[in-house]
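Notes from the 1:1 (GR / supervisor)

We went over the backlog. Supervisor wanted to see one worked example end to end before approving the batch request, so GR pasted a single chain during the call. The sequence is below; no edits were made to it. Supervisor asked that the structure be written out right there so they could see what the output format looks like.
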Amino acid sequence: MKIVIADDEKLIRQGLAYIVPQMEASDEIVASCADGEEALSYCLREGADVDVLITDVCMPGKDGLDLIAELARLCPHIQTVVMSGYGEFDYVRRAMREGAVDYLLKPLIKNELQAVLERIRQQKKLAAIANEGKRESPMIASIHQDHLLNALFHHNPGVAPEAREYLENGFGIAEGAFRFFAAGVAIDEKADGRFRQADRMLFQYFVRKMAEEALFQQQPACGTVWQGQDDFVVLLFFVPAGDGARESEMMDALKQLLAILSSHVQYPVTIGVSSGAEKFSDMPRLLLEVQAALRARLTIGTGRVIDHEASQRLQRQWNVQPDAFHKVVTATMLGDAEALEKELGVFMDDLYEAGIHPEVLLDIVLRLFLRVESMMEAKGVVRTGEPGSADLGKLLEELRRCPTWSMLEREVRAKLAALSSLIREHARQIKPTFITDAVNYIHEHYQSDLTLAEVADVVGLYPTYLSEQFKQHMGVKFVDYVIQVRMERAKKLLRETNKPSFEICEKVGYATPAHFTKVFKSKVGCTPLEYRESWRGMRKI
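Structure output shown during the call:
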């Protein structure tokens, strides 16, 4: 293959130029470029014959990301491979979106470079030659393996026999001679980093590649890896029966894999591990145990290897202080955002520290929402478009889609805050008699020099209490509401009469035209005269 290298580090370019021809005599470095512009110019040059571009992501001038994007548009036949250092996986993710087919981690390892180029070579052969009579490509082989193993682990009786035969013949294993262990690798979102479907696919590809290289490439008979149907990559280990040391080595290897993944991906990574099994028919149980272990990260936390036994040891009852539950409900029903934030924080902290089983934990949170729902219904608060007592299954499903504690806490906080806001709005609409009387008095006497003390005396309350209740039920301060009433009346007079501004000023409760004009402009955005002229202009259209 004809290969172009783009990297601003001279030693990297020289190293690749030396290593690549040694690995495969037919591979040739046709250009060694110090930046993206030079590499792009070479690839676009008339008569240039380029099969593969290997580029760094971070270069001065045109970086690797821009280079890959332009080549994908102008030279789609050129396969691009991106190089990146530790902590630069976000660049890799963007590069794969732009069209890169693979990536290499710095410092480069010869075996990894050889494997990447071999994959590209096989894919090019597959594209150039019909499949009939040709060797099956690695890509087709992996798809076939995924199909068989997913059928075996999901107990598909029609395909399971073929899957068992595949494991026995392909890996030289047999029931009774080996114990089987399964593990699943999950990468989760963060509050400030949501995933697109393309992100999930890239992460799964990255996990699969790293697992193959770190665990199974040197000793292929010890296990295999494939893409499961549950949005996580699954690893299957074959451990000789009775070999406890190999089981311990397996756990150590998974911890090393976790460290490698965590060093490259700036998102929470968790590995769940099943117990052992001796029969192929036990594979569905292993998958269920992996799923249970991964769900336990909600309580145990991310960034660790969780075995099935650890998930089973979680508490099955709630030992949190009982009044914590009621304080959250009370704060929500009072519509007190500050109190809700405080009490919910205490409640969630207690839940996390209690080490409760995920299913029990979600049941507690669901009961919290049910209690709030019940009290809202009793108060006549109606809401639409939200999961509630009429759709508890949907609410529970939304909570289950929060695999980590931070995601669950964010979801609960947002939902309760929305309910609390709705309750506050409902309270404003259901106004006490003294608020209604105060509003009526304002509408009847807005022309006079109206004061809070005067209105408070009319409704029989202290001015400070009326001020507080008025703001709560009307959503605005007393003085601002009086101004709103006066401005609406003034606009009506400006539209429907020819009265001069100074007369309207007196009719809406202002002593001087200057003060009236100042307030009108600050609230409406123009002077009374400008408002009248603009209104008349619209009427003529």
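Supervisor's comment: Strands lie at 2-6, 28-33, 52-56, 79-84, 102-105, 178-187, 223-227, 233-240, 269-273, 305-307.
Batch request approved.
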